[in-house]
Write a structure and sequence with these properties.
five-stranded mixed beta sheet; elongated; 3 domains; 313 residues; alpha/beta
């Protein structure tokens, strides 16, 4: 019984929808015929009422695309979107034009305070004006201030040149031997003249050995203020304690960023290109002798023969 009633309801609904669809189809065809037969121009012109009708048909009738001939279906879909854009454009327009103007006496007060107090900036002038009970923003104060010519400040190049005597950098690099071993070379480079103040070679570097090299590189209170290094695990607690005891502040570069320690990295590249790529290292003593000879020449070249080539090894 329920199955029969459900089939009967579906049949009634189908007949109703078919009848409504037929009525909508008749309305669509009659409207298009009316638009085509209008004597206004060769091309049919749609009014606002025509667009509203087709938007309404597209919402209630599923077969409106097959009956549409005067415009494309995409055009009908774009009409309500265009209407929404126009609506929100209208809603977003300002009701009142612009900000209220700043009174002339307030502008004159800002110019007077800034001209009579050359060292005052916008925050200081803004604070003084607020103390007088005048509500104005700091951006407005900065806009109407009298800007004075300031003496040129030092650039970054001059700043680094003034502090380069307090900078040094350290680094390790490896050298293979003829016996398939690996030797570690430790370099200490001063930034003021880019001279190598100390180097040493070992096959088993440790934190204690590295700390002893720093002590040998800077005896008798000659340590720099800042030491640039990477984040190698060889610089352990013993090394950091020795650096702190000598009054050296460690500057750690970012992980995997050798370009942040460029001077010593360039020295390593120079050693490889001009020396190590042209010889075969036998052992630790052989490598130490080669580096001593080359770095003596390198330091004398860096100093331009203006000071004796005295350095630790």
């Amino acid at each position: 019984m329920f199955f029969i009633l459900r089939k009967l309801a579906r049949a009634c609904w189908s007949a109703f929808t078919n009848r409504c669809g037929l009525a909508a189809r008749n309305v669509a065809l009659e409207h298009q015929l009316d638009v085509v037969t209008r004597p206004a121009s060769r091309r049919p012109r749609l009014t606002r009422a025509d667009r509203i009708l087709w938007v309404w048909l597209s919402r209630i009738w599923s077969g409106w695309r097959e009956s549409l001939r005067i415009v494309r279906p995409d055009t009908v879909i774009a009409w309500p979107r265009r209407g929404w854009r126009l609506y929100w454009t209208w809603r977003s327009k300002r009701r009142k034009p612009g900000r209220p103007p700043v009174p002339q006496d307030v502008r004159e007060l800002i110019r007077t305070l800034s001209s009579q107090n050359v060292t005052w900036g916008a925050p200081r002038v803004h604070g003084e004006i607020l103390k007088l009970g005048i509500e104005v923003s700091q951006a407005t104060v900065a806009k109407y201030m009298v800007h004075h010519e300031k003496p040129p400040s030092q650039n970054w190049r001059m700043f680094l040149d003034n502090h380069v005597t307090t900078l040094a950098s350290i680094d390790f690099f490896t050298v293979p031997t003829i016996r398939f071993g690996v030797l570690y070379v430790f370099l200490v480079l001063a930034h003021d003249r880019r001279t190598v103040v100390h180097f040493n070679v070992t096959s088993n570097p440790t934190a204690e050995w590295t700390a002893r090299q720093i002590t040998e590189a800077f005896p008798w209170d000659t340590a720099p203020r800042y030491m640039i290094r990477d984040r190698d695990s060889i610089y352990g607690d013993i090394f950091r304690g020795r650096m702190k005891a000598m009054g050296i502040h460690e500057v750690l570069i970012a992980p995997r960023s050798p370009w942040q320690n460029p001077y010593v990295e360039r020295l390593v590249g120079t050693l490889r290109r001009e020396l190590l790529d042209h010889v075969i290292v036998v052992d630790e003593r052989h490598l130490r002798r080669l580096l001593r000879a080359y770095l003596g020449y390198y330091n004398c070249r860096s100093l331009c023969f203006t000071s004796p080539c005295v350095w630790n090894h």
